[in-house]
Every structure is written in structure tokens, then in C-alpha cells.
Amino acid sequence: MQTPPPAGVDTTQDLTTPSVAPTHPSVSVDALCEAASAASGKSISPTLYNVDLAPTKREGRSWTSYSIFTLWANDVHSLGNYAFAIGLFALGLGGWQILLALGIGAALLFGLLTLSGFMGVKTGVPFPVMSRISFGIRGAQIASLLRGAVAVAWFGIQTYLASVVFRVMLVAMFPSLADLDKDSILGLSTLGWAAFLVLWVVQLVIVSFGMEMIRKYEAFAGPVILATMAAMAIWIFVEAGGSIAWSSNNALEGLDMWRTIFAGGALWVSIYGTFVLNFCDFTRSAVSKNAVVRGNFWGIPINMLLFGAIVVVMAGGQFKINGTIIQSPSDIVQTIPNTLFLVLACLALLILTIAVNLMANFVAPVYALTNLFPKRLNFRRAAVVSAVIGLVILPWNLYNNPLVILYFLGGLGALLGPLFGVVMADYWLIRRGKVNVPELYTASPEGAYYYRNGVNPRALIAMVPAAVVALCIAFVPALAAVAPFAWFFAASIAAAVYYFAADRTQQLEDRDGESIAVASTH
């Protein structure tokens, strides 16, 4: 006999596909788990399941190909990416060479992100739950916390960088505020604190409304960013007299040129090494696999080539004007002579940076914390905790300390390649896409993903040699020549070791999570 669902839980459902009904905030996690257990026939654990970690229902998913395209329309055009691509110009690559480097990276990313995105569409689960498949129901904490730790630090840093642009805009509008930008309180001026806290609150408010609000914000910001960057490129092109310099004075040739092209393409993939891990956080609400393919196609190879063209025009145009190489579009913004246009450009960069921060650096730690304390934290509460951590670490001091960026964030980032290798090898090569979704939420020792005390030792063993290689490449000067390819070495080694070490005696069952799913707009 099934346990009757608790009061307050709607039991209206399709009799052919029983499911957990939409939940109300007043319904406890224990009550939700009882309803899920009754619907699925599995013992769903409150230490593994809540409304934010549950699979999303297929019906009502709202992330279309346009939603996914706008993710990339925002993230690709981030200030950090512009700084990286303009750096290729400074290293001696010319216009077509920069486009080729970005094109190589884009082609690889299209494949990797599409495979990663398909996992979210099929299972409907976020990354911390997805990683339970390969690491075990408890071992997944390692994977999600590594991803979340990198993200929460960068959330604070990116908010600080956005606040710098905000300060430029405020001083342009109200020159008297410049006096508040001369003191220092814990490393930041009074105006700096005000700008940082305003942006901090804005992001927290957006995230507190959940993934659907993030989708709407990304959809709004995408066209704004594309139009702004295109307008800035056109302005520079006109200022340069209708032509640009196609390379700097130290143009590379021969073997050095080709090595830098392929290194640039590899680093372009490495930049997205974090995102290929938790892309399922977004595609779990995608309407179909086709939506992922279309969104990725227009958002990655097509959009990245447009991004490359804008970079070439900006860098080449500015170099022709005065022989200098800019570091990012913010350098161009500060030279705009018209205050109104300067303010509008700054506002667009703020919209962009918030959009990038939300998708790349805020969602991951929110899900990681929710996964760590599912009975105490929901999406909104975890967002507050993540934001507070991003504030109390005083991220401007981290950003201004190269050793912290290199050894702490660089070291953690080097471990994301091995994580990706294990997760993808397990899902695609060992299981061939077969997942028993309800078993991801059971703490029973007989569960498919319990392994050994909730941890898959084979996954951890596979990570060790890959992590050693990744860290050596990242920090040993003698290996600097292969450093741009560190992510590929680490991911490939982890995938290969796991492929040969994996347990092939498992009984693989493919079962969807509709019986315990919740509405995708939660």
C-alpha cells in the first residue's frame, strides 16, 4: 500500500505517469519526499531531494533555442573574453588568425556543450545531482563544491569589476562624486563600496526569483549587448577613417603563428571549462534537444565569429588611430567624448556584466549549497549565502593579488578538467546515456549510485593522475609551453583512466524522473 501524500500536496496527476505535484513553499522537504517516495516507489531521501534539486517536468519547460542563444550572446561578449581576444592581437596574431583561433575553439565548444546540454534535457537535474551518477550520492559533493568555490570567488570579482565601470558612469553624471573615490575602507573607496553594494543587491534580487527570472534577464540583456558592441566597433571604424590595422607591429609568422593560433583556440575552450560542467543547470529546463542544438549553433560558432570580428575591428581600429592596443572595451568607453553616450555605454557594460555573472558565477554555488543542505537551503536562501560569501571575501583584494588568482583560483580551476572527463566518460561511454533518475535521490545502500558509502572510489582514483598533471602544467614553469592545453590533457587523462577502471558489472537501467519531477519554473 502506498503512503498517502501529506496535507497541502496536490495529488492531481496523470494516472499513466504519476508525479509529484507542484509544491508550495509551506510544504516541508520531508513532506515532499514522502509524496515523491509514494509516486516513484523509491525511498526518496530528504538529504538528497528538495524542490530545487528535483528533476524538472518535461511539460512546461520554458528555455527555448532563443533562451540558450541569449546565454551565449551575453557570456561570449563579456569584458574578460574581450580582454583575452584582444590579448591575441597584442601577442602578434592578425585579423584572420584571431578569427581562426576563435573558430577552432568555437567548434570544439559547440560539441562539448551540446553533449553536456543533452544530459540536462534528458534527466532534468542540476549539476550537483548529475554528478551523483559518476561520483556517488555523497561523492558528488566534491564535484559540486569545487565548481561552486571557483564560481563564488569569481562572482565577487566580477561584481567588483562591474562596480569600477559603475563608478566611471556615476562620476561622469555627477562629477562631485569624484571626492568620494579618494579614500580607502578595507581596500575600497566610499564610492566604490556604494557602487559594489548596489550591484550586489541587484544581482541578489534577480537570483532570488529563481531560474525563470534569470532566463528573462538574459533574454533582455542579449540584444542590448550585441547592439552596444556592434555600435562601439562601428564608431571605432569610423574614427579610424574607415579602415583598420590588421596586425600589430610584432606580427607572428610561421611556426610561432600556428602555435599561438592553436593555443588561443585551446585557451578559449579552457575559459568555458567551468560552464561545460554545469550547463545542465540551464538545459534541464530546455524544451528539447533541438532547442539546445539551435541555441548552441547560433550562440557559439556564429556568435563567437561575430565576437571575433568586433575584436578585430576594435583592436585594429584603435591601433591605427594612435598605435596603442586597448585591453578591453571599457578602455574605449572612457574615451567617448559625449557624456550621454558614455553613460549609455557604461550602462550597457553593467547589464552585460550582471548577465554574465548570473549565469557563470551565481547559479553554480547556489545549487552547490542547496545540494549540501537540502533540508535547510532552497534556491533563494542559498543565493543569499552565496552572495554574502562573495562579499565578505573582499574580492577586490583577491583580484589585486596575483598569487591568489594564480594559486588558489588557478589551482581549483585546474581540477575542473578532470571532473569533466570523469562525468562525461561515465555518462556517454560507460552508461551510454542510461540513467535511473529516481535512484539519484535514494540513500539506500542498494541504490544504483550508492557505490561505497555513497562515494564512487573509481571516480576519485581517475581524478588523481589527471589532477596531478593539471596542477603540474599550471604551476611548473618548464611546462609553460603546454599550459594552454592543460584542460584537454587533464580531461582526457581522467576520462581514459575512468573508462578502464569503471565497474562494468552494474545493471544499467534507464528510467526518467517524471514521477518525482516538479514544475520547471520553480
UniProtKB/TrEMBL annotation:
**GO molecular function list:** nucleobase transmembrane transporter activity
- Annotated Pfam families: Transp_cyt_pur
TM segments?
66-92, 98-121, 142-165, 185-207, 219-238, 258-279, 300-319, 339-370, 382-399, 405-430, 459-479, 485-501
Domain of life assignment: Bacteria
Q: Where is the composition biased (Polar residues)?
A: 10-20
Instruction: List locations, semicolon-separated.
Output: Membrane
Q: Which coarse location class describes where this protein primarily resides? A: membrane
Keyword Membrane annotated: yes
Instruction: Name the UniProt key words of this record, in alphabetical order.
Output: Membrane, Transmembrane, Transmembrane helix
Annotated Gene Ontology cellular components are:
plasma membrane
Ranges for the region named Disordered are 1-20
The record, for CDD domains, names: SLC-NCS1sbd_u1
Question: InterPro entries of this UniProt entry?
Answer: Pur-cyt_permease (IPR001248), Uracil/uridine/allantoin_perm (IPR045225)
Give membrane topology per the record. Multi-pass membrane protein
Q: Which PANTHER family does its entry note?
A: NCS1 FAMILY NUCLEOBASE:CATION SYMPORTER-1 (PTHR30618:SF6), NCS1 FAMILY PURINE/PYRIMIDINE TRANSPORTER (PTHR30618)
Q: Which family does it belong to?
A: Belongs to the purine-cytosine permease (2.A.39) family.
Q: Return the protein name.
A: Permease for cytosine/purines uracil thiamine allantoin
Q: Which organism is it from?
A: Pseudarthrobacter chlorophenolicus (strain ATCC 700700 / DSM 12829 / CIP 107037 / JCM 12360 / KCTC 9906 / NCIMB 13794 / A6) (Arthrobacter chlorophenolicus)
Q: What is the lineage of its organism?
A: Bacteria, Bacillati, Actinomycetota, Actinomycetes, Micrococcales
